[in-house]
Amino acid sequence: MGPGVGTQLDRFDKLKIDHIYGVELNPAFVSPLLAEVETAELQGKYTVISGAVEDERLLAEYGLKAGSVDSIVCIGTLCSVSNPEQTMRWMYELLKPGGVFIFWEHRRSRDFLTRLVQGFWNPLWQFVMGGCNLSRSTGDIIRNAGVWDPRDSEIEVQKSLASEWSIMPRVEGRLIKRV
Ligand SMILES: C[S@@+](CC[C@H](N)C(=O)[O-])C[C@H]1O[C@@H](n2cnc3c(N)ncnc32)[C@H](O)[C@@H]1O
């Protein structure tokens, strides 16, 4: 989901992949993404889909429909979709029962002063950073998208106070769609 220019592609273990569909909204990223697919030696195992992940008809052309996907990797993307709750529910639907949602996102701080700073910067930040919103409760949005299996799921919100002082504190984890 939102692979951008493919910065994260070298994290994938080629031997464990059947096929990756990289759904990227920004058409300007398609060409560098394709170049990165070659660098990461993922040719034949990676299809770039140019468009929005919410575009059900586009995804269906590639056989991606509700209940069809083994795993979704979402890194630094939920901050910039226009309706994160809706997008997240759709990604939950796309997963097979037992499918995995793997994520590393930033979120609204739990520290009051930092939240004020996030709110102060947000309008300019969104304008300059392609719609990136600093003030979303991303962990809750992910958690509330559907029913996750508590046995094997992990969701971690950085706990140290210092991380709450960052304007981009993190939430990360892997959640398993309940069978
Ligand atoms: C901050 S970048 C992160 C890129 C990549 N995941 C990484 O970690 O380097 C967010 C990416 O999500 C893409 N994006 C935003 N909304 C999207 C959507 N609705 N469907 C697909 N991609 C989207 C943007 O075009 C951008 O490339």
Automatic annotation (TrEMBL):
The keyword Glycosyltransferase does not apply. Residues 1-103 form the Methyltransferase type domain. This is S-adenosyl-L-methionine-dependent methyltransferase. The keyword Methyltransferase applies. InterPro entries: Methyltransf_11, SAM-dependent_MTases_sf, Thiol_S-MT. Pfam families: Methyltransf_11 (PF08241). GO terms for biological process: methylation. GO terms for molecular function: S-adenosylmethionine-dependent methyltransferase activity. Keywords: Methyltransferase, Transferase. It comes from Rhizodiscina lignyota.
